[in-house]
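User: Sequence in, structure out. Go.
Assistant: Echoing your sequence, followed by the structure tokens.
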Amino acid sequence: MQNHAASPIRLRPTQPNDAAAIADLVQELQREVGVATAFDETQLHSRLTSPDSGLLLAVAGGVVAGLLSYNVCQGLLHGGASFRIEELMVGGPFRRRGIGRALLTDAERLAKSLGCVELEVTTLEDNLPAQALYRSAGFAGGAILMEKDLLDSGNEA
């Protein structure tokens, strides 16, 4: 049996048959952070067919080891579009091998090619390893992300 965690990493575009592997990775992160929302392949398809969003994949030994999902948002404040990193996730066995950094580097290359003027990312307050990675890649603090969960059945419009 091949040790996929020891295999070389390569970055590649998402392919139609990646949905199950992407679902596994998303569900792993959901368990780690305590999110109970079920993975929705329809949402994934929508993201992959939108001109303003997509996924970058890191693959090791044929296994999806990590992904970065993004959305390009037009803005007024910075004088151009922002490349918003929605999620950056690396599977447990593949962590601390430079996959997150490689995905960030590829995202920056893509953002520049799309004419974006900034990269933005958020992470949980207690996710210190992710914050250290982002800082080492040139990201700086200065904003607070606030969220309101609209899926809570107790909130009625």
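User: And one key feature?
Assistant: The mean pLDDT is 85.
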